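Table 4 source record.
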Amino acid sequence: MKSLTTRERRTFRTRKRIRRPVDTGRTRLSVFRSAKHIYAQIIDDLTGHTLAEANSKTLAPSGKKVDHAKAVGLALAERAKAAGVTRVVFDRGPYRYHGRVKALAEGAREGGLEF
C-alpha cells in the first residue's frame, strides 16, 4: 500500500470537510496555485463538468501576484454568474487560506459568489 505524502494528506483532509455541502447540490470552487500563476474553476461534482474557469495566465493583469489572484476571483465570479452559479463551496486544496488563495476568495466574494 502506497503511503501518502504530506501534500496529499492535506488535500484529502480539506476535501473530506467539504464533501457534505457538495452532496447537497452546491458546486465546488477549486484553486490551483503555481509559482507564477493561479487557476480557479467551478466544478459540478454530481455531473463531473467544469462550469466556469479563470486563470492569471490568460487574463495577464498587471501588478503583484496577489492582485492577479483578486482579478482571477472577480473574473471567475462574473463567468459563474453567466453560467447561473451563485453558491459555491471553497476548495483550497493543500494551500493555506493566506496570501493569493485568500485574495482569490475575496475577489470571488466581491464579484457576487456566496461561500
